[in-house]
Amino acid sequence: MAKTDAIISARDRIAVALDVPGSREALDLADRLGDACSWLKVGMELYYASGNSLIAELRSRGFRVFLDLKLHDIPNTVAGAVRSVSQTGAELLTVHACGGPAMLEAAAKAAETPGAPRLLAVTVLTSMDAHELNAAGVPGLPGPQVVRLATLAKDSGIDGMVCSPEEVSAVREATGPDSILVVPGIRPKGYPTDDQRRIATAGETISRGASILVVGRPITRAADPAAAARAIVDEIASAELA
Ligand code: C5P
Question: CB 3.0–4.6 Å: which of 29, 121, 138, 222 could bond 153 by disulfide?
Fold first, then answer.
């Protein structure tokens, strides 16, 4: 994706999380999704099992790849990782905002190379509540820490942020209209929350200012994943018009 490409259609606004253990399951799911969505999210479990050949396979089927590796290391190492990912054709890549300004700036500089992915800073993991955050040495509630880290990421030259549906409005306000806000924790009305704590529907989350929604189980565990994805795309399109 060229840096200037706009997110244009509702189909480009969901990333289906391929939370499966290997290439065979991932490609099967990709084939079942067909053209119902543009983006597939490859996380650590799948990437460490299947590597760059899987990214190439998904791209050859016409999908855009969001590589969710949540990089967090010293600046030199993270910059090198960003340069390595630039060879794969993945278009979005996550780094941890809590790696600090030097790490974020080094990542952003490495992402200026041709073919580099756009970077998204993970703020506070949605699995962390106040108790978890405090135990890790950060006082207070997750909300203010999410906004603090999102602002840090923006000031360090990072293109976007990952946050929960609860924080989207505050992060949009803090980081402005151009940030790519990527939001997991999406659940259709009546669908089980599973292990997610801070959830909302696709329409609500788009209305609050999200750019791309990450959706896993409501699509991947559906009897017809393509139909489930299309239903969410339709909900996004309706929210865009509202
Ligand atoms: O199945 P579900 O829709 O809950 O999947 C959400 C996806 O988003 C998973 O791949 C999960 O790892 C990811 N994610 C998340 N919370 C974050 C970052 C990523 O749920 N803060």
Answer: 121
